[in-house]
Amino acid sequence: MEAENDGGEPTFLFPQFLTIARHWLNECLELRDGRTVGYLSLAGYREEAVERIVRACAKSLTTAGPEEIRPVMNAFNPESKYVDFFTTKQTLLQTGPGRCQVNYVVFDSDWEAAFAERLERISKVRGYVKKHGLGFEVPYVFMGEERVYRPDFIVHWDDGRADPLQLIVEIKGFRGPDAEAKKDTLSALWVPSVNNDGRFGRWGPPVEIIAPFDMDKALEKIVAAFEAAEAEALPTAAAA
Asked: What φ, ψ does residue 179 adopt, rounded to 5°?
């Protein structure tokens, strides 16, 4: 208890951490190629195991209650209200003012350009923006190193409610080793915390587009799964 009062590590919680770690080792760890648990003593494997356990614990805090997670806002720029930047890139796609408040999409690949063109034509898209010059970043940890994730697009999807469902969309031509850490951080921490805050609308699960075709169907599939999960979580009324 002294450590907690002095601002140090809460050592009295160690038995709980130990129990969680043992559960993870017994139920989640899969050893391959003749490897043993001893490999987790190596720094890289150890850090990855810790990160996976932390993200798994965070998922249990996504429901409302005394332990719900909340976002930590940037004290100097909590919202990207004003977008004004210059770019030397020539890969530009002009947007329709009815769909996007930024007049150009600065794309990094043909897939991103194709996705933006598709968004201009999908009737359920109420708005979108390409993440460039917005200052929109999601911090995450990978292999013990603090990093920053900058998603590709934010899409406002018409799911029949007055306020649109907001989706973070990543165009994935290649899924690197840190992709899972990014997606887990968004799903388990960022999206739940922003939804719990309530000031920035409704946010759905992150979307990965891994093929350059049927992009609108991929979005519809994600939204349908989200709506089904929402409906399942609602309490059912008892029969009279």
From this structure: -60, -40
Q: With CA atoms as reference, report the closest residue to 114 among 81, 91, 146.
A: 91
**Tens-place pLDDT, residues 182-225:** 888 888 888 888 988 888 899 988 888 876 666 767 777 777 77
Whether 48 and 121 map to the same domain: the answer is: no
CA distance 215 to 124: 13
Global pTM value: 0.69
Which residue range is the domain that position 134 belongs to? 92-233
d(CA 8, CA 3): 5
Structure tokens at 201: 């609308």
| Position 146 in a domain | yes
State the Cα–Cα distance between residues 117 and 93, nearest whole angstrom. Answer: 8
* Residue 26 tokens, joined: 């017994």
Res. 46: pLDDT tops 80: no
**SS3 (DSSP) at 187:** helix
Residues 152 and 41 in one domain: no
C-alpha to C-alpha distance for 117 and 95, rounded to whole angstroms = 8
Closest CA to 220 of 154, 157, 163: 157
